[in-house]
Amino acid sequence: MMEILEKVKQVQQAVESFPIDNKEHLEAFRRQFIGQKGAIKGLMGEMKNIAPENRKTFGQEVNKLKQLAEERFKTLQDSLIETKQAEGPAVDLSLPVIPQQQGTVHPLTIVKNQIVQILERMGFNQSDGPEIEDDFHNFTGLNFPENHPAREMQDTFFIEKHPDIVLRTHTSSVQIRQMEAFPPPLRTFSIGRVFRNEAISARAHCIFHQIEGFFIDTNVSFVDLKQTLFHFAKELFGDDTKIRFRPSYFPFTEPSAEMDISCRICKGKGCNICKYTGWVEIGGAGMIDVNVFKNCNIDPEAYTGFAFGMGLERITMLKYQVKDLRLYTENDLRFLRQFRGMM
Ligand code: PHE
Predict the structure, then answer these.
(1) What is the pLDDT at residue 222?
(2) What's the pTM?
(3) Which residues have a Cβ under 8 Å from the Cβ of 314 and sit 6 or more positions away?
(4) Which of 57, 93, 118, 165 is deepest in the core (most CB within 10 A)?
(5) What one-character DSSP code corresponds to residue 52?
(6) What pLDDT, in 10s, does the model give residues 175-203?
(7) Given the CA of residue 153, which atom of ligand 1 is nearest to it?
């Protein structure tokens, strides 16, 4: 009995002093002590040779030893895993980075943001209106007489007929909504989608965006309109930009004008962008018609106002020399990536 207990003690010492620094050592430890053919199993096999009165003591000793070995195995196993995690995967800091393509802001959004900033600096606040409009806000309130050919200026998408519900053909509908909702003075602008039943081409689309601005107060004159747009054009296109007005017709403004800016490409000398005129059109404008005021219960004796409307796609084309407005909706990354880094 003494002999076998001495053997248990030896194994115990070996278990305690076995050096373990890595996975291989750990596996050797497991095989030598805990495994099926290990020393502890071997000791248990001795049980049959032990006198029955000593078996209990022997069994207890061997069990203690087994526990000890298993605990040591477990702690070392855990600490090896921890060290491994702390070391982490091998990193070569001199390797070049994997390029990641960042998204870009859409050119229309870039120009829209610029326009919002310019108009807000000029004291215009932003307003909004629905894209689905009734006849009054899109046409009648804006002094389009019923069955008047002026309605055909704008090829309308009808959602319902009699009474008419339409996809708004211009943002001038927001003028009516604002005049109904708020008493003058009003100095506000709106940017949004408009819809016209037109064939899609390089220069026309059935969905596009307009910027509508208007100012109603006492003594607002055509000079205010001109200076406002002149300042706007210089801010957006650069200090050397000139503007000019050509007489035009809109049912909701009188007098009405079409506005041009001096061609930015050739600086007025003439090129294929401005069709050798030196000027490019950016929108329409005018003094708000007395009938529009009346339709919105605003006293035309007390107030005057101007309004202007411009196409966002067109302005963006001029600013960034986009030759075909279908590019805006094709999601071609070669086009969109040219605006990388711009906001
Ligand atoms: N609503 C007009 C259009 O779509 C533009 C415009 C707006 C003209 C405001 C005058 C005043 O063509």
Answers:
(1) 97
(2) 0.72
(3) 281, 282, 283, 325
(4) 118
(5) G
(6) 999 999 999 999 999 999 999 998 998 88
(7) 12
